[in-house]
Fold:
Amino acid sequence: MARMVDIGEKEVVKRVAVAQGFLVLKGATSEAVSSGKVKKGDVLTASKLAGIQAAKATATLLPLCHQIPLTSVEIDIDVEDTGLRATCTVTAFYKTGVEMEALVGVTVALLNAWDMVKYLEKDSSGQYPATAIKDVRVVKKSKGAVHHGR
Structure:
């Protein structure tokens, strides 16, 4: 049996979660991203927006997650020689944590980037021999004092 956990008796507190992941890319692809020469457009801006949208939709994607009223979602993406490092920070005042929202946000940001640069990553047979999303994990989470609202 699967069920959503009852959090009705828990107190509302500030919740913050930070997730990070890495998209392995060819050096030439990383250069195309940083120089704005990708056919589909601005990879960093589009991927940040995709990650924010995804974090907000987590309860739709993961059926046992609560619908959490997020107060902030921030996606940072750093271009490195070997790929893109994305970080998603999610904040809410709620009764349960926001780790899944941060993980979904960072993963979709990286998936969006992959979609935008895939034509640069394919080999001669149309495969992706080196492209990979790696090391997706929660790097920090916290919960603060009880929030009494308005």
